[in-house]
Design a protein that fits this description.
The structure is a homodimer.
Chain A: H1 17-27, E1 31-32, H2 35-40, E2 55-58, H3 62-74, E3 79-82, E4 99-102, E5 109-113, E6 118-122, H4 127-133, E7 139-140, H5 151-157, H6 164-167, H7 170-173, E8 174-180, E9 186-188, H8 202-206, E10 215-222, E11 224-225, E12 229-236, H9 240-252, E13 259-263, H10 265-275, E14 284-291, H11 293-309, E15 313-318, H12 321-332, H13 334-340, E16 346-349, H14 359-370, E17 377-382, E18 387-394, H15 399-418, H16 434-456
Parallel strand pairs in A: 2-4, 3-4
Antiparallel strand pairs in A: 1-2, 5-6, 6-10, 7-11, 8-9, 8-10, 12-14, 12-15, 13-14, 13-17, 16-18, 17-18
Helix pairs in contact in A: 9-11, 9-14, 10-13, 14-15
Amino acid sequence: MNHPQAFPEALRRPLPEALAASLRERFGERFSTAAAVCEHHGRDESPFPPTPPDAVVFAHTTEEVAEVVAQCRARRVPVIAYGVGSSLEGHLLAVHGGISIDVSRMNRVLAINAEDLTATVQAGVTRKQLNEALKSTGLFFPIDPGADASLGGMAATRASGTNAVRYGTMKENVLGLTVVTADGKVVRTASRAKKSSAGYDLTRLFVGSEGTLGVITEVTVRLYPVPEAMSAAVVSFPSLAQAIDAVIRIIQLGVPVARCEYVCERSIRAINAYSHTTLREAPTLFFEFHGSETSVHEQAELAQQIAHELGGQDFEWATRPEDRTRLWTARHNVYFAGLQVRPGARAITTDTCVPISRLSESITGARRILDSASFPTMIVGHVGDGNFHSMLVIDPDDPAEMAEAERLNDAIVRLALSMDGTCTGEHGVGLHKMRFLEEEAGDDALDLMRRIKRALDPDNILNPGKIFAL
Amino acid sequence: MNHPQAFPEALRRPLPEALAASLRERFGERFSTAAAVCEHHGRDESPFPPTPPDAVVFAHTTEEVAEVVAQCRARRVPVIAYGVGSSLEGHLLAVHGGISIDVSRMNRVLAINAEDLTATVQAGVTRKQLNEALKSTGLFFPIDPGADASLGGMAATRASGTNAVRYGTMKENVLGLTVVTADGKVVRTASRAKKSSAGYDLTRLFVGSEGTLGVITEVTVRLYPVPEAMSAAVVSFPSLAQAIDAVIRIIQLGVPVARCEYVCERSIRAINAYSHTTLREAPTLFFEFHGSETSVHEQAELAQQIAHELGGQDFEWATRPEDRTRLWTARHNVYFAGLQVRPGARAITTDTCVPISRLSESITGARRILDSASFPTMIVGHVGDGNFHSMLVIDPDDPAEMAEAERLNDAIVRLALSMDGTCTGEHGVGLHKMRFLEEEAGDDALDLMRRIKRALDPDNILNPGKIFAL
C-alpha cells in the first residue's frame, strides 16, 4: 500500500495556471517549475523514487509562507514544507503534487536569550548553524539526529538522536513555534515561559505532525550550559546481549549518561573502512558523560565498572574536544559508511523503540530476523532510550530486494509492537510507516488523529497522504 | 464574565429521568443525587461558590466510565471527571449541570515496571499513594504539586510543583494515558516506549486539556531512582531582589537543583505560626539537591557561594529524611498557613510564569501591585522555573474584596503577559483564567483549540464551559 509504485498519478491535478502565474509574479526567480529543482524537492533520504512537486517557492519570511499557503488553499493545491531534505520516511514526496515551500533560506537566528537559556530561529536554521551561533555564549543546543537537519524539520518529525537519553527529544526542547495554518494565518503556539498550563498544548500538537497540520516557520528551543567537563568512551563486548545488558543496568541505576550508543560489529567494520579508524570489530558501546569534573569522573567510573562486569574490554577514552569529535563523527558517519559497503545502494532504516527491559530481546530478535537477509544489514542504536535502527542496504532498482527488505522491516516492527514499543522512535511515519501506525495506535486513536487533521486542514492541503490515509 | 455569579441557570437542563433511572439501575448506590454528595462534587479549592452537578457516579473501571460517557452522550448530558477536588481554578464546577464521574475509587496501582522506570495507575491514585507503593523499589515519582492530588487530575491540569525545575512537569513525565472519548470509546494514547514519533502526540493533547477532550482513566508515568544523596537548605536574604537574583544565577549556571522555592517574609510568618517553626521572617529560598554524595556536595557549595554573594544568610541544612520532610511540610503548608491568617477566608491564587530573566521584575512588580491590597497577601514560588503564586486571602462573602482581588490578579497577569510569560504555569485555566487565555493565546490560536474541541467533542458534553467559551 505504501510502496513507491503505489503513488497513483490520479492523485495529482495539474497546477492551476492562475496560481502559477500569481506566484511567479509575486516571487520572481524564487518561484520555480524547473524539472531539476522540482526533482530535488521530491526526494529525501528514503529509498522511494523521486516524486516531485509541481513547483517550488523559496520563502524568506513567515509572511511569505502565509501568502503561499493562502493562495494554495484558495485553489485546493497541496503544500509541502521543505527544509534540507534529510528526512528518512518519504515525508517530502509530493504524492498529491502541489507546491514545495522551501524554507532553507529562512536561516536567521532571530534571538538568543542567553539569560533565559532559549533561542528563537527561523525554521531553515540547522542545528549546526545554531550551535555555531551559540559559540560565544557558553550554551549549546543538544538535540543531534546525526544529519545537519533544519530545526523546522526536526520539530516536524519530533526528532531526537544521540543526546536524547539525557536532554530529551524535540518534544521536550521546543518551547514554542510559529506556525502557518491551513488558512494562511500565523499562530504562535506558546509564550517563552518554561512551563505553562494555558490551554491545549498546541506546541506538542505541531511537534511531530510532519507538516500535515501547519507549516512551521519559527522555532523557540531550550538551550543548556556547556558542561564543565565532557568525556567520551568506546568499549567493546564479547556479545550483543552483554553490551545491551550493560546499557540496561547503567540506565536503571540512574547514571545521567549524555550519550549511550550501540554499534554492531558490522557497522564498526563499515566505519573503519569509511573513516580509517581501527576500532575493534565487535559489539560496541559509545558513551559520553557530561557534568562537573567530579561528576563526569563518577559517572565514567560507574559505567566502566558495569561494563567490565559484563565482559566489556578495551575501554578507550576521549576527553579532548578533537578526540571526542573524531569519535562522534565516526559514529555519525555510520549511515554513509553503511551505504559505501555496496556502491549505488540505498538504505531502508528501521526505527523501533521499546521499554528498556525488552531492549536485549528486541535487538537480538532483530539481529536474528536480519540474519536471513540477502543484502548487507547493520544495527546501531540510541540504546539508552530503547531505540535502535536496523540499516538494510539494498539495491533500490531491484524489486525483489525491496520486497525482501519490507518483509524484514515488518518483522522487526511487529516484534517491537509485541513488546509495547513503537514503530518509530524518532524518524516519523511519513509514507513508510503508515500501516504500522494503524497497528500501533489502533482504529480509535487513529480516528482522533484524523478528526484533528480534518478540523485543522479541512481541504487536506497540508502535506497530504502522509501519516495516515484520510 | 468569569465571576461566580455569572453561571446562569439557563445553561442547565434538568437531568433526563430516563438517564437517571438507567444509571441508578446500573450503579446502585454508586449513583447518587443526594444534595450533600452533589455539593461536595461541585466545588474545588477555588473561591467560587459550589456549583453542584445533578448526580455523581462513583466509577471503578475504565469500562464503567465509558458506559457513563456513552449514556450521557446519547442524551447530550455533560460529564465532569472528579479526582480529589484539589484543583484551584473552578475546573470541577458543574456550570452546565450534568454528571460528575468520581474516579477516586479507581485507586489501583496497575503495574510497576521497575526495570523500565515506569508505573501505570488508575486515575484516582494519588501521588503519595504511588510513592508509598514504590517504597521497596528504590524508585520514586517526583511531581509534587503540594496537594496530594490524583494522578488523573494532575495529568488533566498539566500540574507540576516544587520538583519540576529538575524533573519536569506532567507534560514530560506522562508516557501515555488511557482516555474515554466523547463517544464512549477507550483509547490508549501511546505505547510504553520512552520516545516515539508515531503520529500526533495524543498524550500531550490530553495532558492539560482539563477534562474537555476526554476522561483520563489510566496514567503511565516515568519513575526515577531515589538519589543516593539528598540535601535541603533554607537561606534568607535582605531583599526579594537579592533572593531572586541568586536563583537566576544558579539556574543560568546549570546547577541541577531539584527544588528551588521562594517564600516571602509574610508567608514565613504564617508558616511559623501554623507549623510552630522559627524561621527568620525574611525573603527566603528553600533548596533541595539530589545526586551522588559528591554531586550534592558540589551543588550545595555552589548554591551557597552564590547566595552568600547576594547577601544570603543563616544557611540551615537538612539532610536527614525527617528534617527534610519537616522543612518541605512547612513549605507545602503555606497555603493552609496563609488561610489561617484570616479565619473563614478563602484564597485567590495567581500562577504566572515568565522567562527567568524577567523573574525579578515580575515578582517585584507583583509585590508592588499587592501592596495596595486591603487584605493579607503573600508570594511563594517555584522560582527555578520562573513560576510564582500570589495568594490573596479574601473574605469570599464580600463582593468588594472579590472585585478588588480580581483587579489585582488582572494586573499581575498582565504584567507577566507583557514579559512573554503565561497566565498559568501549572494550575490550568478552568473558569478563572478564560479571559487571560484569550489575551495570551490570541484569537487564531484559540480558534485552533476550539476546532480541536469541536472535532473531539462535537456535542460539548466534556466539562463544558471550561478553558474557553465555544
